[in-house]
């Protein structure tokens, strides 16, 4: 809901043609007062007020002041009308000088729909910037607060075999649906569904109302949401020549209890400034083409993934690219990278960020976590990141699957009670190109860490590191509560 901005008190006075006189001007006015019938004299005004006794009948009539409002015919240009000031909605106490100025709100850069219920407050803004960590938390809160609640309108049933139902295709039901409507499948269907500029729509395969993963029916094809707000629930989506489910072009929505599998593209693609919440869903065996992840997030988009499975996909379990953000919790990302050995459970690149809690990523083609391109990954605790077992010699060639691979100014921070395990080849982490790997609290890192090209590793107090630093060039420094390895640069 958009918020109305307050008018500046000085502008209000100017608009209604009033001026505040100086004491000298007031004295001069008193000296030149004349008596006239029906006038209000300055000598009749004490302390800036006009009392009922001072008002000569007829000098102010009901056309001038009606119902304690100021009417437009008494204000030049109708700038302020009675409808604009009623019930003391704007009082001097509410307008603090300088509280709103042209540099604060310029060109409608901040609108009501961007500040809701205190999502962004002054404590989150420092020197005009919103901190990455604060922004990510606010994104999480905003997604949790938004979405849901759709489907309160008309329910349209779809039976693609034509036995019962209001429609014989999902697309026909979508075309007929209005705000907050629900589309319920009564049979399996085979089609590509396009949903454009529709809000509050729910598509459900839960005919039995049991809320089971994958639902009662299967869509062979895809669902594309373009500039809409759509919930997809308890449905199996398979066999698409592209992504199974695709939110595109500033769309919002949710995916709950869905099984998206065996699609040429990603199981779920969230693209172009879209925001989606995912819960209790399965994304497996996707990405049989040039690229396809279990979940792909790209181009300034955001997702929360909760209690879901992203296994055995051709490329990544979840890929987060180009200024995007993901929060993943309570999920598994195992054995991804089937089509390419250079893929990972978590793939993060191009100024993107991920927060992870209570997830398991193991057996993935190249790494449990692969991150680079000035991107950020933080484990908040309860995570297990394990390299795929291999017979390679990590200490020799370094060409091995690893638990964590960090490159090109990537940053990984592991907190809480998370564990990092290098597998049978002891390849815990590989850190290159001005990147940083930091672990703290009670984190356990088992295996070696290889560094190169101005890389940093920092272990803080309480963390357990069982392994060695490869490529440190004897520049390891230790002190109270920390140890640091910085490759190729001697400490002063």
TrEMBL record:
<dbReference type="InterPro" id="IPR011050">
    <property type="entry name" value="Pectin_lyase_fold/virulence"/>
</dbReference>
<keyword id="KW-0732">Signal</keyword>
<dbReference type="InterPro" id="IPR006626">
    <property type="entry name" value="PbH1"/>
</dbReference>
<dbReference type="InterPro" id="IPR012334">
    <property type="entry name" value="Pectin_lyas_fold"/>
</dbReference>
<dbReference type="Pfam" id="PF13229">
    <property type="entry name" value="Beta_helix"/>
</dbReference>
<feature type="signal peptide">
    <location>
        <begin position="1"/>
        <end position="28"/>
    </location>
</feature>
<dbReference type="InterPro" id="IPR039448">
    <property type="entry name" value="Beta_helix"/>
</dbReference>
<protein>
    <recommendedName>
        <fullName>Right handed beta helix domain-containing protein</fullName>
    </recommendedName>
</protein>
<feature type="domain" description="Right handed beta helix">
    <location>
        <begin position="228"/>
        <end position="376"/>
    </location>
</feature>
């Amino acid at each position: 809901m958009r918020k109305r901005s307050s008018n500046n008190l000085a502008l209000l006075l100017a608009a209604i043609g009033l001026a505040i006189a100086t004491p000298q001007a007031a004295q001069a006015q008193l000296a030149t007062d004349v008596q006239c019938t029906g006038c209000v004299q300055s000598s009749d005004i004490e302390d800036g007020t006009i009392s009922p006794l001072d008002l000569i009948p007829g000098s102010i009539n009901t056309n001038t002041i009606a119902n304690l409002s100021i009417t437009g015919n008494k204000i030049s240009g109708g700038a302020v009308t009675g409808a604009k000031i009623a019930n003391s909605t704007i009082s001097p106490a509410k307008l603090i000088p300088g509280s709103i100025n042209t540099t604060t709100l310029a060109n409608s850069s901040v609108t009501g729909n961007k500040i809701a219920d205190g999502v962004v407050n002054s404590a989150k803004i420092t020197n005009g910037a919103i901190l990455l960590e604060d922004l990510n938390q606010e994104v999480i809160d905003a997604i949790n607060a938004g979405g849901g609640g759709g489907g309160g309108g008309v329910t349209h049933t779809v039976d693609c075999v034509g036995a019962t139902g209001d429609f014989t295709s999902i697309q026909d039901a979508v075309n007929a649906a209005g705000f907050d409507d629900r589309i319920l499948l009564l049979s399996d269907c085979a089609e590509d569904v396009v949903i454009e500029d529709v809000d509050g729509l729910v598509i459900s395969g839960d005919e039995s109302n049991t809320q089971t993963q994958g639902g009662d029916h299967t869509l062979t094809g895809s669902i594309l949401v373009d500039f809409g707000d759509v919930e997809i629930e308890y449905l199996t989506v398979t066999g698409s020549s592209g992504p199974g489910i695709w939110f595109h072009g500033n769309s919002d929505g949710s995916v709950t209890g869905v099984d998206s599998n065996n699609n040429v593209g990603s199981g779920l693609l969230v693209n172009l400034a879209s925001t989606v919440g995912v819960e209790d869903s399965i994304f497996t065996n996707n990405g049989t083409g040039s690229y396809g992840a279990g979940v792909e997030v790209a181009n300034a988009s955001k997702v929360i993934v909760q209690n879901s499975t992203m296994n055995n996909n051709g490329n990544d379990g979840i890929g987060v690219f180009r200024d995007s953000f993901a929060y993943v919790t309570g999920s598994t990302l195992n054995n991804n990278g089937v089509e390419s050995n250079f893929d990972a459970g978590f793939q993060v690149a191009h100024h993107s960020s991920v927060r992870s809690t209570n997830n398991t990523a193991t057996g993935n083609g190249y790494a449990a976590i692969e991150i680079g391109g000035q991107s950020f990954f933080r484990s908040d605790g309860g995570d297990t990141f394990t390299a795929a077992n291999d017979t390679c010699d990590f200490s020799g060639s370094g060409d091995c699957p690893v638990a964590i691979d960090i490159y090109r100014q990537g940053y990984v921070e592991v907190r809480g009670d998370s564990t990092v395990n290098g597998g049978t080849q002891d390849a815990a982490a590989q850190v290159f190109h001005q990147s940083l790997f930091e672990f703290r609290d009670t984190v356990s890192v088992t295996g070696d860490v290889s560094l190169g090209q101005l890389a940093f590793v920092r272990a803080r107090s309480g963390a357990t590191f069982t392994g060695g630093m490869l490529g440190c060039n004897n520049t390891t420094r230790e002190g109270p509560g920390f140890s640091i390895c910085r490759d190729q640069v001697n400490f002063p």
